[in-house]
Amino acid sequence: MTGFLGFIGLVLMVWGLIQLFKKAKRKKGLIKLGVGFVLFLIVGMVSTPVEENEVADKADTEVKAESEQEDTKAEAEEKAKAEEEAKAEAEEKAKAEEEAKAEAEEKAKAEEEAKAEAEEKAKAEAEEKAKAEEEAEKEPEMSVSQQNAIRQAESYLDYTAFSKSGLIDQLEFEGYPTEEAMFAVENIEVDWREQAVLQAESYLDYTAFSRSGLIDQLIFEGHSEADATYAVDQVGL
Question: How many Å separate Cα 172 from the centre of its chain?
Answer without folding.
Answer: 71
